[in-house]
């Protein structure tokens, strides 16, 4: 089968098309013929090892010290089940599915196996393959942090980076739960964030979102790099900062922040729960979660998709249609 591989860390040019063995499903696995995948900020960070501050050594130990341990990137997929293992009962050939291997990656390929009890579910009938593939990363990350924060109806939520993959999902999910949502984004994305359900929008190019006083129960920082001291003026007592793109400084701050008062920081990697994928499917089918797709690329254009994601200007997701002979 065809797959895009990277055998060294670097720019988009290190991602190359190659012939690799087609996987064979084990007894408890399904073989998915991938029809759509995505290039995410996570793919860019792993390709370049451009990780949050202080996590460089940890990333090399996890993903490969001198070269990538897993040569095929891609964390999201949608496609059709082509074959199933002898013990599989939940799926059969022909089922339309979507899934989230997450840190295991391997989706920038024509085929991938998935455990039947893993992060895979039937594709929402109202979504295309490209739309379904765009949902798991942002939505599952958002669900993790909103759960950790204990979001409740009526809470006031500020989402920084509201037009990105995680940010756009957070705006929709927080609104669905019943929060009053304010999105922070650039001028060109104001209309998009409003369309996702934000009650208020702030243009960070003209306004300082930290200038207000004690207005928010939860601040969701999907961008990273902003010190906790800047958030304190806009947090209510017992307010929470969700540091989605946290580096070591934010993680350390999450330990000492409670010592300085009732406000706190929630940081750390998002849990990849099996239950999230069917929940995301149900939310999409109910219209509570809609895909946000910035650009679409052909499979042979994955290096170009990497280059675009690396600019940091994408809105929502960048999806890739996977061609088969």
Automatic annotation (TrEMBL):
Q: Which Pfam families match?
A: ADH_N, ADH_zinc_N_2
Query: Where in the numbering of this chain does the Enoyl reductase (ER) domain appear?
Result: 10-320
CDD domains assigned: MDR1 (cd08267)
> What protein is this chain from?
NAD(P)-dependent alcohol dehydrogenase
Per the UniProt record, the source organism is: Reyranella aquatilis
């Amino acid at each position: 089968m065809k797959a895009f591989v990277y055998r060294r860390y670097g720019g988009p040019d290190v991602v190359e098309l190659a012939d690799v063995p087609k996987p064979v499903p084990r007894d408890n696995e399904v073989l998915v013929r991938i029809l759509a995948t995505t290039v995410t900020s996570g793919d860019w960070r792993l390709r370049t090892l451009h990780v949050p501050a202080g996590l460089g050594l940890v990333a090399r130990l996890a993903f490969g010290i001198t070269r990538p341990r897993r040569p095929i990137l891609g964390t999201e997929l949608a496609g059709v089940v082509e074959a199933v293992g002898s013990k599989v009962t939940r799926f059969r050939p022909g089922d339309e599915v979507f899934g989230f291997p997450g840190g295991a990656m391997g989706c920038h390929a024509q085929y991938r196996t998935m455990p039947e009890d893993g992060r895979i579910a039937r594709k929402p009938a109202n979504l295309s393959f490209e739309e379904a593939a765009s949902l798991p990363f942002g939505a599952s990350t958002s669900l993790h942090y909103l759960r950790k924060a204990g979001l409740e109806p009526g809470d006031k939520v500020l989402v920084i980076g509201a037009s990105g993959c995680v940010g756009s999902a957070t705006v929709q999910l927080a609104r669905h739960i019943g929060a009053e949502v304010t999105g922070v984004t650039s001028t060109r994305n104001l209309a998009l964030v409003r369309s996702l359900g934000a009650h208020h929008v702030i243009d960070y190019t003209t306004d300082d979102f930290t200038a207000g006083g004690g207005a928010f129960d939860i601040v969701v920082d999907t961008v990273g790099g902003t010190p906790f001291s800047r958030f304190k003026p806009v947090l209510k007592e017992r307010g929470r900062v969700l540091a989605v793109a946290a580096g070591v400084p934010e993680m350390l701050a999450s330990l000492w922040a409670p010592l300085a008062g009732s406000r706190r920081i929630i940081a750390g990697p998002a849990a990849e729960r099996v239950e999230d994928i069917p929940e995301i499917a149900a939310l999409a089918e109910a219209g509570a979660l809609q895909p946000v797709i910035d650009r679409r690329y052909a499979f042979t254009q994955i290096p170009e998709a990497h280059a675009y994601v690396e600019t940091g200007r994408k809105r929502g997701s960048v999806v890739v249609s996977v061609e088969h002979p």
